[in-house]
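FIELD: query
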Amino acid sequence: MKGALPVTTLFLDVGGVLLNNGWDHHARRRAAQHFKLKWAEMEERHALTFETHEEGKLTFEEYLGRVVFYQKRPFTRAQFRRFMCAQSKPYPEMIKLFAQLKIRHRLKIAVVSNEAREVNAYRIRKFKLDWFVDSFISSCFVHIRKPDADIFRLALDIAQAPVRQVVYIENTPMFVQVAQGLGIRSILHTDYKSTCAELASFGLPNEGAIHETR
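FIELD: result
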């Protein structure tokens, strides 16, 4: 087992771990094709605004106004919003894994993610993430984005978890390195099987089935 202290808390990324990346460059390219937008122009405008948007300092309507609806379009904001939301897909195996680990090992679970408020709220509600997640340290709520180490410090304060009793699961190597720099043991997620093996090595095996009672 890695480390002497038992793990009491998991920090989880959302995009790439629990769900797909709901509004990444692949999704934006699909949107550009679907709505016949100029991809390069849309992407340039997105790049100028996305950090501010993810930090909760730019509303969804303001983001759409700057990136898409800065000129008249033959489609509505509601149509574009529905398309954006439809890009989000769950990883059911991963969601089930962490829901079971929480019950089996009596863990606290906190999400530490970079997401815009409206997309974040939709994804939490749509995929029932609040069923097993205790707190959401999302960039849009706390106005800090990874790789800023302060988001992890804030997560530790909110979770009231000693750093050596936390394991962080993330699919972006730099963010793993930032967390490790603070002493947070971390798993670079690439697939279900390897992450299960890493979790077991931290003393968090997921053997057998948990029958949901809720």
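FIELD: remark
The CA atoms of residues 116 and 166 lie 25 Å apart.
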